């Protein structure tokens, strides 16, 4: 069966968005793919990487490409919740209070070095991420749609940082690790940065992006794949039930049901990015580490043995095989 016109238009629009971003950002294909997955699945992204790896540039360029608003907040220890969400201002001339909305009222929000701010500031961001709204002096204000928070953490410095509360970490759809570029990529980076400035073209509107997000919800996920996601999450909580008794001393707390939901939604978005209307097992397996790594609370025993969350997830995936490629999609495309 021929792909319908809507599918073709969707694929073209996704290609145009990626093409424009890649004109500016060199390499970081995996990171960019995860940003697009989070955007389509309406999730939030936690990014860990040393400074200078184009984290800010990627989100800013994406915002320009979809004609969305972009704002960046540099998190510091002296930040207060009002600096994020806004506050009430008294006007002496009129004798009335007016509401000044904070920088969270945007489409793409970059929370730079999120672990530098105290818990009360992180909690203020928590409401916006989960409820997509802010309450100021008893009044509720909705943030614009689409809305994506991308928070960064610097893995080098720990002085003057606050650990993120577990409840907040769980609200991030994925945690992505960004690495240094290759020598060839770095050569191209230098050429682009020191060469003529590149102007990014706006190829989509925020309304078109919202339509893409709705379309993403219609991507078919076979029940066997949802069951696979459930088994993987279950193995992080009770490894002994899945023949992984040796992992029990290493995991204090496993992943929450949000992990199952995010894995399914993320696989849908990745399938859509790859030009399909149905999810294949590899769409899900490619995202497992990103969805799980920040949700596992490791024991002191695991830390003392130098075990990372990624290593434990790898062992779980080796024990629990992905289902065979579902045949259901053949009915959809027949």
UniProtKB/TrEMBL annotation:
It comes from the Bacteria. Keywords: ATP-binding, Nucleotide-binding. One of its GO terms (molecular function) is ATP binding. Pfam families: AAA_3, AAA_lid_2. Residues 14-154 form the Sigma-54 factor interaction domain. Gene3D superfamilies: Magnesium chelatase subunit I, C-Terminal domain, P-loop containing nucleotide triphosphate hydrolases. InterPro entries: ATPase_AAA-3, CbbQ/NirQ/NorQ/GpvN, ChlI/MoxR_AAA_lid, P-loop_NTPase, Sigma_54_int. GO terms for biological process: regulation of DNA-templated transcription. PANTHER family: MAGNESIUM-CHELATASE SUBUNIT CHLD, MOXR FAMILY PROTEIN. Belongs to the MoxR family. This is ATPase. It comes from Ramlibacter tataouinensis.
């Amino acid at each position: 069966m021929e792909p319908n016109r809507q599918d073709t238009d969707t694929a073209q629009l996704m290609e145009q968005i990626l093409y424009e971003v890649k004109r500016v950002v060199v390499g970081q294909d995996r990171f960019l793919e995860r940003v697009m997955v989070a955007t389509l699945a309406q999730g939030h992204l936690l990014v860990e990487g040393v400074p200078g790896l184009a984290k800010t540039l990627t989100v800013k360029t994406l915002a320009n490409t979809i004609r969305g608003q972009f704002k960046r907040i540099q998190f510091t220890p002296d930040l207060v919740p009002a600096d994020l969400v806004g506050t009430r201002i008294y006007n002496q001339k009129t004798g009335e209070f007016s509401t000044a909305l904070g920088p969270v009222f945007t489409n793409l929000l970059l929370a730079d070095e999120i672990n530098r701010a105290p818990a009360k500031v992180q909690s203020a961001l928590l409401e916006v991420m989960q409820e997509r709204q802010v309450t100021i002096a008893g009044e509720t204000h909705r943030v614009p749609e689409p809305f994506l928070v991308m928070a960064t953490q610097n893995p080098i410095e720990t002085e003057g940082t606050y650990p993120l509360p577990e409840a907040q970490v769980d609200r991030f759809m994925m945690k992505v690790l960004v690495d240094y570029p290759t020598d060839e990529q770095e050569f191209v980076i230098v050429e682009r940065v020191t060469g003529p400035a590149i102007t990014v073209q706006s190829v989509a509107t925020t309304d078109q992006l919202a339509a893409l997000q709705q379309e993403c919800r219609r991507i078919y996920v076979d029940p066997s794949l949802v069951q696979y996601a459930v088994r993987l999450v279950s193995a992080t909580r009770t490894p002994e039930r899945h023949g992984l008794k040796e992992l029990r001393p290493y995991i204090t707390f496993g992943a929450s049901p949000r992990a199952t939901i995010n894995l399914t939604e993320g696989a849908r978005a990745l399938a859509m990015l790859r030009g399909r209307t149905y999810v294949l097992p590899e769409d899900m397996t490619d995202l497992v580490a990103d969805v799980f790594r920040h949700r596992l609370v490791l024991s002191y025993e695991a830390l003392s043995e130098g075990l990372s969350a990624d290593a434990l997830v790898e062992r779980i995936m080796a024990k629990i095989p992905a289902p065979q490629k579902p045949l259901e999609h053949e009915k959809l495309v027949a």
